[in-house]
Write a structure and sequence with these properties.
Strand order of the largest sheet of chain A: 1-2
CATH topology of chain A: Methane Monooxygenase Hydroxylase, Chain G, domain 1
Number of helices of chain A: 6
Structural class of chain A: mainly alpha
Distance between the termini of chain A: 31 Å
Helix content of chain A: over 70%
Number of domains of chain A: 1
Family (chains A, B): Belongs to the PhoU family.
Protein name (chains A, B): Phosphate-specific transport system accessory protein PhoU
Main location (chains A, B): cytoplasm
Oligomer: homodimer
CATH architecture of chain A: Up-down Bundle
CATH superfamily of chain A: Phosphate transport system protein phou homolog 2, domain 2
Strand content of chain A: under 5%
Subcellular location (chains A, B): Cytoplasm
Shape of chain A: elongated
Radius of gyration of chain A: 19 Å
Keywords (chains A, B): Cytoplasm, Phosphate transport, Transport
């Protein structure tokens, strides 16, 4: 028979899976509404964020309960403490998605200048891909995949710099209304942060598998 | 005689204090160099960030060691798990300060338009004040002060909206070079995030004192 601890740990993993899918869905949705400008869907992404915040609190409560009542050791302790850290990044990723959706609601007129639009969309897909892979690495306890995610953040950062240059050019050429260009820069920044948080998640996955966090042995 | 656990907990608190002062110093410095445009000092703030990252990892390692070997309960467990969560926000605050310092290095010419400059400086002081108060609330286990910090975030968010409006106007009036205005917006966003992270820290301080996180009983 399963012990109480085993079933609580299984519950934790199941809750993490639900939260990971919610977060991934929010990011993919935010990237899509950025192009489609579908305001109804943008509103739904924003409203979904409360639910993700609630999931975070439930997971935190369960992690603390597990630490408090079950006093796990070794690999189990790493898994619980990594989960406690990771949910913070997962919630932050969902926040950025909601922030992007909120921006879509404020944009006036049609899509951005085609080059800016293309670069933003590419950046969005890359960031969403990192989120997906980090979540999958956690689920499958796949350290190799986690390391790949860590390596991808630099390319999202480069894309941010490129989009920033597009925006400065757009301001000078008045290719889009100034207010829209300012919001496009915010979107790019949020996507860059999504990449950062996906990297953080991947680093905690590595820790939960190997005991090494950013290459250093912890605990 | 003190137990091993007590001395390790005292060490954790001392390390948290060092990290809190480093973080606060970085934010205050970033706000100052934004006005003074002192590039040498900006470089020093950027370089100090590696040290803060290292402090974070040391604290995380100590928290995990405490959880693993000492299996603290009740209030002690809350203090250790809150520390484990808070250092993430502290590190992120220092990152934003380093990002602002890095921007100062790239700015061309003199200070921003005086209104924008004034609003940014005010926003910076408010965000730095929240960081100071959140750190002090942790040190003094002062739940009331922590609650005050939580309440202040809305005003930093409002200031961000005001600065954003200044910047859109500045773009239209060409009051500053477009590249500088884009960077000013990034600075404002980073300061707004500093406020968010200070609020997160204050929420973990409340939890470590009361067992309630964002008003909900955890664990």
């Amino acid at each position: 028979m399963r012990t109480v601890f085993d079933s609580q740990l299984a519950l934790l993993e199941a809750q993490m899976l639900v939260m990971a899918s919610s977060m991934e869905e929010a990011v993919v949705g935010a990237v899509e509404v950025l192009e489609s400008r579908d305001k109804e869907r943008a509103r739904a992404i924003m409203e979904g964020d409360d639910d993700i915040d609630h999931q975070e609190r439930e997971i935190e409560a369960l992690c603390l309960k597990l630490l408090l009542t079950q006093q796990p050791v070794a690999g189990d302790l790493r898994r619980v403490s990594a989960a406690l850290k990771m949910v913070g990044d997962m919630e932050r990723i969902a926040d950025q998605a909601a922030d992007i959706a909120e921006i879509v609601l404020t944009l006036e007129g049609e899509a951005f200048d085609s080059k800016l639009n293309k670069h933003l969309a590419k950046m969005g897909r890359q960031a969403a891909g990192m989120v997906h892979d980090a979540a999958e690495a956690f689920v499958k306890r796949d350290g190799e995949r986690a390391s790949q995610v860590v390596g991808e953040d630099a390319s999202v950062n480069e894309m941010f710099e490129r989009v920033k240059r597009d925006i400065i050019k757009g301001i000078q050429a008045e290719s889009d209304p100034a207010a829209n260009l300012v919001e496009a820069l915010m979107v790019a920044k949020y996507l860059e942060r999504v990449g950062d948080h996906a990297q953080n998640i991947a680093e905690w996955v590595e820790y939960s598998i190997t005991g090494r966090y950013k290459g250093e042995l912890l605990g």
